[in-house]
């Protein structure tokens, strides 16, 4: 009995093993008629049994990476992961009949797909496409793909490089209105932001802050159309621009302030200021390559550069004026010294002439004393001649005194003019220096607060 029982049990087990069903994905496709010639019905029309039923498409977008944000062309290039889910009412099977198979993967071109597109996209996507999509037993179809989006973005660069940008990606159907295709987000804004931060690969110059999702309906041609708008909020990392642009301009401003302590009598100060101004001009050319040509209002960084450039230009003009006044004062002093040398020569010549005249007069007086006793009849005439000669000498002395007075007045006038010119130059230099310091002390905190506000 024991042997017969064992043989019977072995026979039952072998029959049960031989009767176990083997299933494949192809069986599911054959059951759905996806491999027959009539399979084109699954991709030609919207997959509903009643045309009044809209097809609901659930969309989910996650941000993988921020590849580039180009201010010059106002272009936003993200790399996103797009998941679309919709229901195909023509597809259904019982997993129990197919060994528990609940999902199959099919090529993308075998079934109908929503005709969704990105409104802001300006360049065709060239990233590798996922060739398959998943189909579940209840007709839910899921399509996942990675998309490199090259889109336009309205950027506000007023606070560059401390700016925060918000770029939109609007997704909608090309030919289906709201009555035919409904768009719903799979994840809300907080979940989409959290998932994006978890899968984020690289951010580069930008720091991802938030991803918000919203619906937008608009009317066109008497129909309602629906869009899903994903708004990417990101903040620029300004360290590179601060080190390479803002700080060098601030250093040049400091050098321009320090140049006030260079002597105005030399030409080095003027050459130094011209060199600093040319360096600022080179940085302005770099700024012109960074910022877009069209903007709603002047960026703060442009105001920062223009004001500092204007201050340096005024400083250069002030240096030219002070140098001119100093050169004029030096020319007056040189002219005064040359006139002094000429006056000394004239004084020496006049003294020699007076000595000769005095010697002649003394000789005349001696001869008159010697011949007085011989020429008694003409004494009165000689005395009269002597008096005439004496008055002539006095007139010469008076004329010399007048010439000396004129020379001294011109001398003191030139010296006063030179002194006034030098004093005016010193006052202008001192006043402009304090004006320069006050303007810089007020402007820098104001522009910093405006950047941070």
What does it look like?
With 453 residues, the chain is α+β, with helices and mostly antiparallel strands. It contains 8 helices and 11 strands. It has 2 domains: 215 residues, Acetylcholine Binding Protein, Chain: A; 208 residues. Helix content is 50%, strand content 21%. Helix 6 packs antiparallel against helix 7.
Care to give the gist of this entry?
By secondary structure, the protein is α+β, with helices and mostly antiparallel strands. It is 50% helix and 21% strand.
How many domain regions? Answer: 2
Question: In DSSP terms, counting alpha (H) and pi (I) runs of 4 or more, how many helices?
Answer: 8
Number of strands: 11
- Distance, first to last CA: 97 Å
How large, in whole angstroms, is the Cα Rg? 51 Å
Biggest sheet character: 7 strands, mixed
Q: What fraction of the residues are assigned to beta strands by DSSP? A: 15-25%
Helix content: 40-55%
Which labels suit this protein?
alpha+beta, 8 helices, 11 strands, 453 residues, Acetylcholine Binding Protein, Chain: A, 50% helix, seven-stranded mixed sheet, 2 domains
Helices and strands in order:
Elements: H1 2-19, H2 25-31, H3 41-44, E1 55-70, E2 75-87, E3 103-107, E4 116-118, E5 132-136, E6 140-148, E7 151-152, E8 164-173, E9 181-185, H4 189-199, E10 206-220, E11 223-236, H5 239-258, H6 268-290, H7 300-370, H8 379-452
Parallel strand pairs: 1-9
Antiparallel strand pairs: 1-2, 2-6, 2-7, 3-5, 4-8, 5-6, 8-11, 10-11
Helix pairs in contact: 5-6, 5-7, 6-7, 7-8
């Amino acid at each position: 009995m024991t042997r017969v029982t064992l043989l019977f049990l072995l026979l039952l087990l072998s029959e049960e093993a031989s009767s176990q069903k083997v299933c494949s994905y192809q069986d599911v496709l054959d059951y759905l008629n996806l491999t027959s010639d009539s399979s084109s019905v699954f991709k030609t029309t919207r997959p509903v049994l009643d045309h009044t039923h809209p097809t609901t498409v659930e969309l989910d977008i996650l941000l993988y990476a921020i590849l580039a944000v180009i201010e010059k062309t106002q272009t936003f290039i993200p790399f996103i992961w797009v998941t679309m889910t919709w229901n195909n009412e023509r597809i259904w099977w019982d997993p129990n009949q197919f060994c528990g198979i609940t999902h199959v993967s099919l090529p993308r071109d075998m079934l109908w797909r929503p005709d969704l597109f990105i409104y802001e996209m300006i360049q065709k996507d060239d990233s590798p496409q996922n060739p398959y999509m998943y189909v579940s037993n209840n007709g839910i179809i899921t399509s996942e793909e990675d998309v490199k989006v090259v889109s336009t973005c309205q950027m506000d660069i007023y606070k560059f490089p401390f700016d925060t940008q918000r770029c939109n990606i609007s997704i909608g159907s090309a030919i289906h209105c709201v009555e035919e295709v409904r768009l719903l987000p799979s994840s809300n804004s907080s979940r989409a932001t959290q998932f994006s931060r978890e899968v984020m690969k690289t951010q580069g110059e930008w720091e991802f802050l938030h991803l918000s999702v919203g619906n937008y309906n608009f009317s066109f041609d008497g129909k309602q159309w629906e869009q899903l708008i994903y708004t990417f909020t990101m903040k620029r990392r300004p360290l590179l621009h601060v080190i390479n642009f803002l700080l060098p301009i601030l250093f040049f401003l400091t050098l321009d302030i320090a140049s006030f302590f260079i002597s105005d009598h030399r030409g080095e100060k003027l050459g130094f200021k011209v060199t600093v101004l040319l360096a600022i001009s080179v940085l302005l050319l770099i700024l012109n390559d960074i910022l877009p040509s069209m903007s709603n209002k002047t960026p703060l960084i442009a105001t920062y550069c223009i004001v500092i450039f204007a201050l340096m230009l005024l400083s250069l003009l002030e240096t030219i004026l002070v140098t001119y006044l100093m050169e004029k004062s030096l020319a007056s002093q040189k002219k005064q010294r040359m006139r002094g040398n000429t006056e000394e020569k004239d004084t020496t010549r006049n003294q020699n002439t007076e000595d000769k005249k005095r010697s002649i007069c003394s000789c005349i007086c001696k001869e008159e004393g010697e011949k007085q006793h011989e020429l008694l009849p003409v004494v009165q005439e000689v005395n009269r001649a002597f008096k005439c000669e004496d008055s002539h000498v006095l007139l010469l002395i008076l004329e010399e005194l007048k010439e000396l007075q004129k020379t001294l007045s011109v001398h003191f006038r030139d010296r006063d003019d030179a002194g006034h010119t030098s004093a005016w130059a010193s006052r202008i230099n001192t006043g402009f220096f304090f004006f320069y310091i006050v303007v810089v002390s007020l402007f820098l905190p104001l522009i910093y607060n405006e950047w941070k506000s």
